[in-house]
TrEMBL record:
Record protein name field: Transcriptional regulator MraZ
Pfam families, alphabetized: MraZ (PF02381)
Lineage: Bacteria, Pseudomonadati, Pseudomonadota, Betaproteobacteria, Burkholderiales
Coarse class of the protein's main subcellular location: cytoplasm
Quaternary structure (record): Forms oligomers.
UniProt xrefs under InterPro entries: MraZ, MraZ_C, MraZ_dom, MraZ_N, MraZ_sf, SpoVT-AbrB_dom, SpoVT-AbrB_sf
Native source organism of the sequence: Aquincola agrisoli
A cellular component annotation (GO) from this entry: cytoplasm
Localization in the cell: Cytoplasm, Nucleoid
Start and end residues of each SpoVT-AbrB domain: 5-51, 77-120
Gene3D superfamilies according to UniProt: Transcriptional regulator MraZ domain
């Protein structure tokens, strides 16, 4: 399970260094193989390969709305491997989609990660909190 956020800097080639706290688990569960794809919120989803395959299989089995999701998630998916320097290359088209330039946040969300432009994530979180839609979820958690 992946949790917590890491402030990272993309290098000049668009590579991200995988935080050390996640490397061992990613190596064990995915042999350093990841899949990166678009998310509708203009961030990227980063999956360990086995988690991606499960997610992809669910999308492929969908009928209603399946074409849109297949185009978004499967159509933009890029398979990558963590290199010997613990880095992952983020494809230029995915960086452009998510507005990733240099300062990014890698956020563990359970079985996958979200990769955000740091400023875009801060704005998105403020917007979500301002909507008030999470109030009931907070109440359900006893917060």
């Amino acid at each position: 399970m992946f949790q917590g956020g890491s402030a990272l800097t993309l290098d000049g080639k668009g590579r991200m260094t995988v935080p050390s706290r996640h490397r061992e688990l990613l190596s064990a569960m995915a042999q350093d193989k990841l899949t990166i794809t678009k998310h509708p919120n203009r961030c990227l989803l980063v999956f360990p390969r086995p988690a991606w395959e499960q997610f992809r299989d669910k999308i492929m089995a969908m009928n209603a709305g399946g074409d849109v999701l297949r185009r978004l998630f499967v159509g933009s998916a890029v398979d990558v491997e963590i290199d010997s320097g613990s880095r992952v290359l983020i494809a230029p088209e995915l960086r452009a989609w998510a507005g990733l330039e240099r300062e990014v946040m890698l956020v563990g969300t359970g079985h996958r990660f979200e990769l955000w432009d740091s400023a875009r994530l801060a704005a998105h979180e403020e917007e979500e909190l301002a909507k008030g839609e999470v109030t009931q979820a907070f109440a359900d958690l006893g917060l």
